[in-house]
Amino acid sequence: MTLESKVPAGPLTEKWSRHKFELKLVNPANKRRFEVIIVGSGLAGGAAAATLAEAGYNVKCFCYQDSPRRAHSIAAQGGINASKNYQNDGDSVFRLFYDTVKGGDFRSREANVYRLAEVSEAIIDQCVAQGVPFAREYGGQLDNRSFGGAQVSRTFYARGQTGQQLLLGAYQALERQIAKGKVRMYPRTEMLDLVVHDERARGIVTRDMVSGKIESHTADAVVLATGGYVNVFFLSTNAKGCNGTAIWRAYRRGAYFANPCYTQIHPTCIPVHGDYQSKLTLMSESLRNDGRIWVPTAAGDARRPEEVPESERDYFLERKYPAFGNLVPRDIASRAAKEVCDEGRGVAHGGLGVYLDFEDAIRRLGVETIRDRYGNLFEMYERITGDDPYRTAMKIYPAPHYSMGGLWVDYDLMSTIPGLYVIGEANFSDHGANRLGASALMQGLADGYFVLPYTIGDYLSRHMGEGPLPTDHAAFGHVESEVRGRIEKLLSVGGARTVDDFHRELGRLCWDYCGMSRERGGLAKALEEIPRLRESFWRDVKVTGAGEELNQALEKAGRVADFMELAELMCRDALEREESCGTHFRKEFQTAEGEARRNDEDFTHVAAWEFTGDGNAPRRHVEELEFENVVPSQRSYK
Amino acid sequence: MKLHLRVWRQRRPDAAGAFADYDLDDVSPEMSFLEMLDVLNERLTLGGEEPIAFDHDCREGICGSCSLMINGTAHGPNRGTATCQLHMRTFADGDTLRIEPWRSAAFPVLRDLIVDRGAFDGIIQAGGFVSVNTGSAVEANLIPIGKPEADLAMDAAACIGCGACVAQCPNGAAQLFTAAKVSQLAILPQGRPERARRVLGMVRAMEESFGACSNFAQCEAVCPKSISIGFIARMNGEFLRAALAQPAAD
Ligand SMILES: Cc1cc2nc3c(=O)[nH]c(=O)nc-3n(C[C@H](O)[C@H](O)[C@H](O)COP(=O)(O)OP(=O)(O)OC[C@H]3O[C@@H](n4cnc5c(N)ncnc54)[C@H](O)[C@@H]3O)c2cc1C
Ligand code: FES
Q1: Among the three residues A400, A434, A452, which one is the final residue of a domain in this structure?
Q2: CA atoms within 13 A on the CB side of A582
Q3: Is B186 in the pocket of ligand 2 (CB under 6 A)?
Q4: Is residue B141 within 8 Å of residue A86, measured between CB atoms?
Q5: What is the CATH number of the domain that holds A295?
Q6: A127: which chain B residues are within 8 Å (Cβ-Cβ)?
Q7: How far apart are CA A409 and CA A256, in angstroms?
Q8: Mean pLDDT, consecutive 10-residue segments, chain B of 250 residues?
């Protein structure tokens, strides 16, 4: 099978509008005849479910939390980008497009990114109309801040709770449709497999997380909006329940998995403090607007930060990247922090941390302004660490945060399985090898509000009158029995190690060999050890309780079992991509100054992996990336 | 630190529950409360017992999943702090901690410390939104909103829907939750066209599932986002205004 990106012809600036015109429409009366399944109620899924229902489709929406309002999008802090140019600082659709393509180190599809920038403005309009209380200037206009990788101020925010407010906007739109009977909501329901029949996605098999009941759901099309997979590292900034199961199961059913090795490590997280640690907390990137990052010049300096004189501090980002300073993109900031820690100049538990200091900003702007901008983040920091950032520098360290990789989709956001769409963080589409801050919220909402609702109609219109496959069809029965078999298998191992114990070990392997920097030897080692760990998981895991009840151990076990497979694909992809680009930093491929060295000749492509059966090596396909509007250059933020 | 825990265990919604006792002697003050439960759960699992079920997800105080009654206080002793943000340094060596689920008729227990808070979604369905379809919005800066109003709306909008307000209320009232959404949308110009319909619908839905408010103000004290009960007064005002303006026949 060849990968057809289906990028429309014509000039970049006209592709989306032309395509929208060319897409087949479903007339309003017929929309009522279609059922669409949406798995996920985050920004992408919630927005899509509400919008499709408003248009007239019948929607079934699923999430694993007790309410759609709790999807992990709720945790996004810093903001959402849009090219409104309200600050009159030279922003434009083209600049947002350019920054995003460059930020992604020229590994994304131009046409998709341009469309994203194009719809960014309508997103802000929509959210404001829903009652999202974005920050305002005294004159009543919307306020903006800056984020990494951009020299304009285009980030809209609602205190430090932007994701929460955007998600509640989408959630409220969704609840409105639930009240109207257009969306049927299935909270605490986990998708455990995809049903494919006649080479089309026909539905899903789920487990009711309260009763344990396994059920089939059928539809004319299936949309996965299940978020990212960086919990493969165990410790990450993601919520504990975030998982790769939905996309992994779809991969095993024939959807290609693109660029699994592109995982983003966020530079500003609270450092690890103990072995029992269950997750890592992000401190928003917006802090880098005013905070200055530094370490002591000398290794092993044990003084408190306030006691280190200016002349003995190394503001390493400002020194190395004078043009962008503390606002370089995430991958660069993370790697620079790792480097100074590797030199022995790190400052927190185990020497794995750097300072993020507001002393200057407080002197310059006053405590009140700083409190206004970051008050809730400072409180959160103090609650966790016991240190007061108004008085002493914060300590931060990079942590796994976001997955740019995900299921491969074409320009219409359809995977390689017809009728299976993938939106939000779950797909691979817009961020290339590195995502810029405040662009995930933008992408999730772009996909959900403004892209999928158009493109899905084109597919559905071609299947007018066919109707969904009945759930008593053998295709469903077959998948259901596989799901049941797997659950029974997990429950019957009866080993001696807990699921978390295995997950931690897997996470450590991934972090050591496929984290901030990677190299051939380490990846090869990971590829030997992961299958070994997986085997021991299936031999020695202990999952208590039964299948037909609320069983959190069982939920976790299923997710970790899938991560055990996903991790291997991630390392394999990292090994095969013999270049450094964005967050994928291979030690063997760097410039004399230690920056990522791309290999455009051989790797200006998307790697999309095809499952070929257990025990067989997956097949690597490529989609060549063509740059007609920007010239790939060595990224420079100096 | 050594701790003694008394934890509510209940296998199914219709099963009788009871407290179970556990001793922990290796608690680090740096641990979060939920990490302390993780450690206990690991121990239980290895000993062949079933781990304690509790809701949690973000562990950053924003998703509203975590929901524990700790020594009779929703989310424990620290003000403005959700259970997941509570750290063990708050407690002293030798303390006994009684850990229970939210107790409220509107939030039935599903298992151990997990309850069903679906009734909150029902209140939002009854009007907690602006009826604006995707694509029909006007330019975002067309309607200026003063910074004080925007900030006030944000104060209300900060609610995480955890249900602590209901759990702590002797009457099991959901006034604070409902008022936060009613207020946010009434303060903003975008929410005004529907303000009467909204408050009437939401209050009706609230009263169907939850108890009445007698101004105990315990909701505010335990709210992890410190949402002010001033919003309840605002909601009552909104309600009165809407009810008086209703046509007599309605
Ligand atoms: C701490 C943090 C801060 C962030 N800050 C920002 C920011 O400031 N700006 C920005 O642009 N981005 C930010 N991001 C990234 C951004 O929040 C996410 O990429 C984005 O919200 C993902 O949205 P989504 O809709 O794709 O997925 P999610 O919001 O993760 O939603 C996934 C949904 O899928 C459901 N689900 C998952 N698996 C299953 C299954 N098997 N069965 C049923 N349902 C399932 C879940 O229940 C949930 O409803 C941040 C991320 C984190 C972790
Ligand atoms: S786990 Fe999300 S608020 Fe506590």
Answers
A1: A400
A2: 33
A3: no
A4: yes
A5: 3.90.700.10
A6: 140
A7: 8
A8: 98 96 95 97 96 97 98 97 96 98 97 98 98 98 97 98 98 98 98 97 98 96 98 98 76
